Structures are given as structure tokens and as C-alpha cells.
Prior knowledge:
heterodimer; A: mainly alpha; B: mainly alpha; flat
Amino acid sequence: MMKRLRAAAGVRLPLAILVLYVLVAIFAPLVAPYDPDTTTLAQRLMSPDAHHLMGTDALGRDVLSRTMYGTRVSLLVAVVAVLAAGIFGVALGVIAGWRRGWLGAVIMRLVDVVLSVPFFLLAILVVAVLGPSLVNVVLCLALVRWPRYARIAYSTTLQTRDRGFVRAATATGAPAWWIVLRHVLPEVLPVTIVVGTLELGLMVVYEASLSFLGLGVQPPTASWGSILSDGQQYLGSAWWLATFPGLALFVLVLAVNLLGDAARDRLDPARRTDVRRSRIFKREVVTA
Amino acid sequence: MRRSPSRVLSSGTTRYVAGRLGQALLALFGVVTIVFFALRLSGDPARLLVPDGATAADIDRLRDKLGLNASLWDQYLHFLGNALHGDLGYSYVQNRPATDLITERLPYTANLAVAALLLSLLFGVTVGVITALNRGKWQERVLMPIVLAGQAMPAFWTGLLLVLVFSVGLRWLPSTGYDGPLSLLLPSITLASLSAAAIARVTRGAVLEQLPLDYMRTARAKGASGFRLVSRHLARNTAIPVLTVAGLELANLLGGAVVTEVIFAWPGLGQLTIQSVSARDFPVVQATVILASAVYVVINLCTDLLYGVIDPRVSAGGKGEPA
């Protein structure tokens, strides 16, 4: 009984939550009670009631609707940033691990360097220079996060290239690109998918943090970070602005983190302890 | 024929230290390079630096003043050379060296980061050890959800909620600014919350890994338990992963400090960074990123070198990276 409950808490519940968020993001125009950008000054800063379940903001916009639309920005940025960083990082990591030599050395030193910059600051610098926008946020998150994937892809490729089936394939004269696609990538992808899941929660937090600082998506587009930033100005008079979008963010990140943990456990039960993860994945846990 | 252990140790140690130093220098050089080119991502920095509505002539004058009419390579060498002399550029808004602005703000951020790191180590290690030693008991069932929740709370939300409860609601603590040690409390808790969760998980994992080992069984058979078990037997063997994550967390603290400082109007580097971004004072942003990276690189170098002190096998084995 307890075991079942725990299993449900580990995978099913977070998965259901994630699906719910995706559905809300896709069908936001259908499920949101109001238009997220319509300002009704007569109804500014109304506390939550039956008409506005999460209250209204300083321009009289419905906070529930804005939070629902904010799901779109959050998920879109997080998913695209993870995919972009993942593809770029895996490509470079596999190349470095397969070719080794000077090319591998150069790539891996670059990985070390990017990892030694406190990356939230680097992200701020990049977005500040490029100018804040949805595309630039994705670009900058991908630019600062690809080394995570490169490092794990590199070490997995190194381990794989010496294994029997790869040597056998080499001996039969198969071309390198075919061996990499057919034998190396299938070994690399599961680990990177786990890293990607763990990163997804981080990306949600970073998008919100950048938006909170005014460096993310620009108004009037609704983003959880920017609603919270408004909320900070009205902390004394409108507590709902600073709580509900944060709650939406918190539940999503919690669900994604639990899924990431479950994915890691399933991938390799031997690596269940957190120490190993800190060494192998060298993951930074949610910041900012 | 065995070589004397001390000789093996010393030559291995020297190589380890030298290798690690080289790596750190390379990283710093790389950081300066990345930051230099990051500013060129948009093309012409002069365009970024002039105020809105500047004329073409203004931009050209600025290009001249900044040396932007030289080749990119010359500019890069110039930037590198200046950085070596501790000259990280000039603030366009305040007309002062960027390093001056930074050193004024640094103590505030250092205060905040050190307080947060201490808090998160205190909480993280305690919770990690307690949950590991009490697997399946109520302590674990109560504390682990808190750790998981802590990991999913972004700093800016934690900060807003703390202000909402303790400043707006209860009126116990000042919400913003810096006056006295009490005003350090909320910002450092905010900043510490995430790192504390990470440190708790790693500590817990490290302790769980040690528990089934022979020496632990022996220690327990000898009657060691509780505080003595932890301090005499576990501490040294779990220190390395905990130190590693604490070092890594420092980068998070430096980054997280930006958001935390904005929420609490804390007069530190993070606020300077955001003010400089909105004033388009890029040399200051550049300098902050370089300085923060330098601090991060040096601290990670120190934790890596500390491994050798805690666990002599690290440096003797010549394994450069514990990763």
C-alpha cells in the first residue's frame, strides 16, 4: 500500500500534473476565463473572489488568465532551450569523445570554461546585449547550458567506443558516421534524456527569473516572472499577485524534478544515491 | 622495491596542484575571452553604449574613443592586457573605473553569500545526516518533502513570500535595504534555501553510501552512535562530496544573489549588475561577470586542493578531476 502510494507520488502524480500544464498551455484561449491582456481599470487590484479566482493586477487584468497564458511561455522556453542545448551539447560531446585528439581537447576545454562562469550572470550579460525577447531568452539559455550535455555525452562516448560491439562494427568496416548513429548514440541518449529532464525544471526557473528581472519576454505578454515582479511592487496591498503565479511555477518545477529523479532511478538503479549524481551529472540544482 | 610513500605523495601532489592551477588559469583566460566576445554578439558595441537618439557622428566619436576602429584582434589583445593589469574597463554612466564600483559593492554581496553558504551548510548537512541515519522513520518522512520542496522553490518566490509573511504581515523584520544585522536575515535565508536543499540531498547520499561499509559496522559494533559516530567516523569520508557541492553551489549563490538583491534592495553586486544592464553600462556588467567567475574559479580550485588534504588518495593517485 505504502509502496504503491510512493510509486504514484514518484511518477504518476507528477506526470498527471505535467500533462495538465501542457493541456492548459495548448488550450489557454479555451480555458482562460478572460482575455489575459484586456485591461479594466475600474477593476484594478481586486482581491480573489468568485469572478476572479486569483484576483486582478494593477491594470485590472485577470491573474488566473495571465497565469494560464504564462504556462505557454514557460513551457515553450524550457522545452526549446533544453532541446537546443541538448542537441548542440550532445553533438559536440560525441564528436569530442569519438575523435578525441586536438579537436576533442579543444571542445572539452571550452566546456570547462563555460562551466566556470556563474552562468546566470552570463545569461544576464547575453540577454542584455542581445536585447530581451522570447527568442533571445531561449538562445541565451541554450548558449549557457549546452556544456552539461556535452560533458555527459563525451564520457559516455568514451566508454562506448571501447566496447565490443563498437569494435566489432569497426572491424566489419562500417563507416564512422554509421557506427556513431547506430551504436554510440543509443548509448548516449538515455543519459542525456535524464539530464534534459532534470534541466527542464531549471529552465522554467531561469526563464521566470529573467522575466522577473525584466530581461525575459516583454509586456504585455504574460509570464510568471513578470507577474511576480509586478507583485513585488504591490506586496503591501495585493498579496495574490506575488503568490499564485509562484505557486504555479513551484508545482510545475516540483513535478518535473520528481520525474527527473524517477527517470534517473529507472535508467540505472545502481546510481540511486545522490552523491553519484553530483559527480556524474555534476548538476547544479535550481538557483536564482 | 617500494618507493617511500612520502615521495610518491609529494611528486603526485605537485603534479596534481600544478595541473589544477593550469586548469584554473585556462578557465579564467577563457572567461575573459567569452565575456569580450559576448559583447560583440550584437555587432557594434558603440551602438549599445550610446544613449537613445544619438547621431551617427556621436557613435563614430564613441567608436574612436573606445578604440573600436582598431581590428578585432588588436582590441581583444588590448582587453586581455588591461584585464591582466586589473583594468576591467570604465563605467560610461558614472565615469569611474568599473573595478572601483565593484569593490564598493563587493562587501555587501560577500556578506550575503557567506551568510547564505553557512546557513545552507548548517541546515543541509544536519538534515542530510538525520534523514540518512533515520531511513524510513518519521524524521525522513517529515524532512525529505521539505528538501524536495526547497529544491523547487525559485529564490525570487521564496523571497517574496518571506517578505509577505515577516515584513508585510507580521511586521517583524525590515523588508528592504541594509540597516544592521537583522536586515541580513531574510535575504540570506532566501539565498540559502536552494543550496540548502542541494547540500542536504548530497550529504544524505554520501552518508547512505558509507553506512553499509565495514568500518561503519565496526564503529557501530564498538558502540559508537549519534554524534560520535558522525563526527569521528563519517565526517572525513563524506566531506568530499559535500565540499564539491558546496563549491558548485557558490556559483548558484553568486547568480542567485542577483535576484535576491533586487528583491531586498540589497546594495550589492547583483543590484549593480541589474542597474548597469538597464543603464546599458556594459563595461560594468562585463567586469562583474569576470570578477564573479574569478571568485568561482578560485574557490573551486581551493575545494579541489582541499580534497588532497582531506583524502590523500586524491592527490597521490594523480586523478585530476573527481568528476
